[in-house]
Specification:
The structure holds two protein chains of two kinds.
Chain A lengths: L2 H19 L13 E3 L5 E3 L8 E5 L5 H8 L2 H10 L4 E6 L11 H11 L5 E4 L4 H5 L4 E2 L1 E5 L5 E5 L18 H10 L14 E2 L8
Parallel strand pairs in A: 3-4, 4-5
Antiparallel strand pairs in A: 1-2, 3-7, 6-9, 7-8
Chain B lengths: L9 H18 L5 E3 L2 E7 L4 E2 L3 E10 L4 E8 L6 E5 L4 E3 L8 E4 L4 E6 L1 E10 L9 E12 L3 E12 L1 E2 L10 H9 L3 E2 L5 E6 L3 E7 L7 E5 L12 E4 L3 E7 L10 E8 L3 E12 L9
Parallel strand pairs in B: 3-13, 14-21, 15-21
Antiparallel strand pairs in B: 1-2, 2-4, 4-10, 5-9, 6-11, 7-10, 8-9, 11-12, 15-16, 16-19, 17-20, 18-19, 20-21
Amino acid sequence: MKRSTLSLIIVAIILCAAPLLLAAAKVGDPAPTFTATASDGKTYKLGDYRGKYVVLEWHNNGCPYVGKQYDSGNMQKLQKQWTGKGVVWFTILSSAPGKQGFVTASDENAYITKMQAAPTAALLDPSGQIGHLYDAKTSPQMVVINPQGVVIYDGAIDDKPTTDLADVPGATNYVSLALEQSMAGKPVATPATRPYGCSVKYSDSSH
Amino acid sequence: MSVRKSHASLPRAIISVAAALALSSIQARAAGTPIPHGTLELIAEKQWIAAGHPFNVALRFELGKGWHVYWVNPGDSGEPPRVTWDLPDGIKADAIEWPAPRRLGTSTIVDYGYEDGVTLIVPMRAGANLSSQNPVQIAASVKVLVCREMCIPGKAQVSLTLPVKLQSPPASAQNAQFFTEARKAWPRPAPASWKFSIAQTNDSFVLTANLGHKITGAIFFPLAESQVSNAAPQTLVTTGTGFTLTLRKSDQLLKPIARLKGVLVLSGEQAYSIDAPIGKPVATSPPGSK
């Protein structure tokens, strides 16, 4: 192999590995890339969706804050609305095996059918690798990535940090706002908020 | 409830007095209402309300082992108890007096709260025109999130009926201890002789404290959400007379803030309330270097 080719390969490896070494992604940063198997059995790689908006939705079906969004039909409505406009929507399951909210592929598929959810795919992340890459702290937690692969929103789904279904209709939905504003070529007015919900149950979680 | 003097025999008078005392102690404490993995009670510190004087009630949460509720700033996840008071004319509720919280969680997700239970004292005010004719009912609707491995939202209606009199009330015998314990856990105001200053860099606040003595540890609990990163380690450098504590800014802190308020727990023991102005951003050399 030519020396210059080897150098290029080494640089490429370092650049690919770099996101794993950086502190978790923040708004304005390139969205860290990942590859994951989904509950539909297929493999999805974030990098394949350059040129599209991507929404990441951290999920735990036992969390009452997630229940608020699904029992009201709100999350499903958002998924249908935005995937209908070409947005790629990944539900992400980062609970570790044995922890609350851990699901197998068939568990998740049954849930999706029962709740009539409509994500592009539900990514299985039992090792928490994707969760840690994005420093996901709660379920729900929402990340919006623009077609250039930059994180433009990270935080709460809306501005009503409660478990009350009654708080859904009047809430300002930060995900929809970020997508609408960015698609209109405007800056995202609220790019980061404190995500509210139950803690993501990584392998070291006790609470 | 008054004890009427009568010409009846002494035993009847004794029974009346005993009944009055029993009734007043029952009225000072309502039964525990179920919440997820625990109970909630609304209790009064004294046996009645003196018109025109402040008084204290408390929301007493008792939880099963390992279950917790959250501080006013819950941290990375969770939600503090939310109280909606239903008060008669002449009674006003002030803000909850929060005991110093504990850090709960993991290295990447840090919350602030109370395990196994907490007593939240609420100071109240009674108007001078409050009539002694009728007892008053103090009620609250409380929403609470109780968590351990999972989180369960709960809602409880609690209420308490207290007589109103002109005289100063005695303490409620069975509730006094809960109020004493809760007050011990309150953060104290920092002594006036202590000096605090806060510098900031691009990504951190650096709290410098001159206390006049050494400490063995310091943990800062921010009062407001989204100012200080909850999970980032707080780097402590001690000196003979105090310390510096570096607090990473929150990723959600989008606008500059002028002051930092919170609770400082020193040497693992005593908690202090602090409220200090933040200096303009400078490039500071790392703490400990000259």
